[in-house]
Design a protein that fits this description.
Elements (H helix, E strand, L loop, with lengths): L5 E9 L3 H5 L5 H14 L5 E5 L1 H9 L4 H10 L3 E3 L14 H19 L5 E2 L11 H6 L4 E5 H6 L8 E5 L2 E8 L11 H15 L3 E5 L1 H8 L9 H8 L5 E3 L13 E2 L7 E2 L2 E2 L4 H6 L2 H17 L6 H14 L15 H19 L8 E5 L8 E6 L2 E5 L6 E6 L4 E2 L9 E7 L1 H8 L3 H5 L10 E6 L4 E11 L5 E12 L4 E9 L5 E12 L9 E6 L2 E6 L7 E12 L5 E19 L10 E14 L4 E12 L4
Parallel strand pairs: 1-2, 1-8, 1-9, 2-3, 4-5, 5-7, 6-10
Antiparallel strand pairs: 6-7, 11-12, 13-14, 14-15, 15-16, 16-17, 18-23, 19-20, 20-21, 21-22, 22-29, 23-28, 24-25, 24-26, 26-27, 27-28, 27-29
Amino acid sequence: MSVENIDVCFVLHVDYSYIEELNRINPSNIYGDIFSYLHENLQDVPFTISPSGSFIEWAEENNMPFLYFIKNMVLREQVEILGGAFYEPFFPILQANDVFGQVELLTETICERFGQKPHGCFIPFSAWSDEIIVPLRKSGVEYCLLDSRFFKTAGLNMYKVVCLEHNGKTIFAIPLESSLSNVMDFSPQEYYESILKLAKQENSCFVIPITKEALHSCFHKKNKGEKSWFEEFLNLLKDSPIRLNHVGKVIKTEKIHQRGIISSNAVLNDKVLGASIKNHIFMDNSLRLLYCKMQYVYTLCNQIRGEKSRKNTALRDLWKAQTAVLFDLENTNIKHKHKLIQHRYRNLLLAEKQSRMPGKFSTSILTYDFDMDGVKEFLFQRDDINMYVHHIGGKVFEMDVLSVYKNYTYMAGEHGLFVDHLISAKELEKIQEKDYRSITTNSVFANNFYQYVSHNNIRKNLQLKTEGIFKLSSSLAVAVSLKKKYTLTDDCMEVQYILKNDSSIKISSFFMVEMSLAFEATNKKASKISIYAEDVKKELQIEELANPLVFKSIPWLQMVGIDGRIKFTMELNELSDVILIPIYRKDAENVNTNIIGLRILFYWHIELEPEHDTEKMVFFRVLDSKRK
């Protein structure tokens, strides 16, 4: 292809996700204006549209008339439709079967709705790994779009198509020229000249991603009688070497394409990561655990046998949780981050619930390397609840209530349930004075590796043990040990502690059990706490807790969610003192309306003679007011 024949392809990606719902954004008008203008005024202008499956579902549910415009433009070959994965995930974190399944689902939907089978694939955030080539080719994809900067890094011509290979399968990758995406930053003349300048350097074609906002502005006329930005640009193309084209035709301009290898990469906030998107996800502990949950639920879904409808429903819920924008790696929805995480857990738990076959599922303890650290965790599973116990800290790091499809321990940076601490009187004072983290992060037992002792799948119990060194002073420390036994009954989780002084010196300390629970906070509703302190019942609102509160002689405590449905009750075998500490969103530490959870610290004063031990027990119940 010579410089006298420069192809320019505009690609419009259209989507509608849970983020639009959260922010109460209704893009129907802007989409209606864009597709109406393309349909009525630019009938001879080729355009490429990349719709997500969620966008098509939303448009169909709301009977959007612009679907007719899109179909009509496809039939008259004005518009080319790109495919991809239905719920637009990060491809590199998916199993091959999920890549194939999601691409097949969107392909079928596009064929049914618009009458055209897509051969190209949109890659969200250009999140690339060569391992996705095989499932993409299996699903009929011939080419995909990737950021042109990847080509430069790989030593390739960044304005020409490349043929990529993995395990004997090949796919074409077409470079996306993002430097020309913000069209409204240029005048039509400047934009035209920028294309010519790049073409002189590379003598090739340009595939330009353009947002709905930018395109809407391009079509808008400032004053009656004036031409729009796009109309002025089209006038410049008359007798010009530049022609507008479809993306799919770019591949056919040359018979032989460059070959190369593009390493795993992605683009966030218009910056190239230089590494796999999985690396970025694993930097955030809550997202890492969410990824582990996805892989676990994938296994459960693919174990469903004999019920195709149930399996398909489970897979659809799993795929919804995989949506890339819901990870919010660009931090554009920080204020909704906990809601986005909880939304994905909801879909994962819906899928997990589908995998529990009626009459076949039974309460059990599974040993499974859930977080992929090489050590098996212990998964307590009851029909209505999950509790996952980790060797580090011997804590419950995930608790799911399946009747409401919520994970109540998902908060990033928080410890979980049944986290153990042995602290001094001075350290207790500091905790009461808001210095919680510096004390409990390095306390005895909190980050210990708990050794496995035994478990009984019939009695549903698990026994762990650990040892530690407790400092009596700067120059004196003693050995202590802790045995911990979990027992899952029909109505509660019982946790028994046996703390032993293994030294020859008497110990005076405080034994503390930490429980951190996530709660949604709204301006209209509040989560409630009922607490008996010194034989007097007190009622509190979690959202009203500005500072840590201390209560004495507590036999039990109950928390109620904002919908009043789920109640958490914690009973103790001995009276305990308790500290209540609100958990804030990370970016809003002092704003009460941004409380997302509560940290409960039960503690007992311990006096232990040499070689003596003491027993404490906590009974944790989850009650659903709608369940009999």
